């Protein structure tokens, strides 16, 4: 019972508890000047990933359902499903930390510099106190 409870709690721990900088962006605002401590979260990641997996399904609902079933029944699906889930966890984490717009660079899950995907520029602005 205790092991099951701990396992359940682990599922609700935010995906990212690491120090460093995280660039929250999309495909239109590529990250720049990443450091070893930087990571990137593409907020359009879930949609892009699903598009790459499912492609353009047929307009006919029955045919589209069959196409989707074939993908979901493929041996690759469990890994793809996990990638989609991870991409959504990243987006949810952005909401949890109160991210209002993007691009943005978040330092240590608490200091946010909006309007840039450039880690070096964001670090400079952060050190200047947002001036």
Can you put this structure into words, describing what you see?
The chain has helices at residues 2-11, 45-54, 61-72, 77-96, 119-127; strands at 21-25, 38-42, 104-107, 111-114. Strand 3 and strand 4 form a beta hairpin. The protein is built from five helices and four strands. It is 47% helix and 14% strand.
Helix content: 40-55%
Beta-strand residue percentage: 5-15%
**Number of DSSP helical runs:** 5
Using DSSP, what is the number of strands? 4
Q: Please, what is the oligomeric state?
A: single chain
How far apart the termini lie comes to: 53 Å
Provide the gyration radius in Å: 18 Å
Q: How is the topology of this model organized?
A:
Elements: H1 2-11, E1 21-25, E2 38-42, H2 45-54, H3 61-72, H4 77-96, E3 104-107, E4 111-114, H5 119-127
Parallel strand pairs: 1-2
Antiparallel strand pairs: 1-3, 3-4
Task: Write a short abstract of this structure.
This protein has 131 residues and is α+β, with helices and mostly antiparallel strands. It has five helices and four strands, in the order H-E-E-H-H-H-E-E-H.
List keywords for this structure.
single chain; about 130 residues; alpha+beta; 4-stranded mixed sheet; 4 strands; disordered N terminus
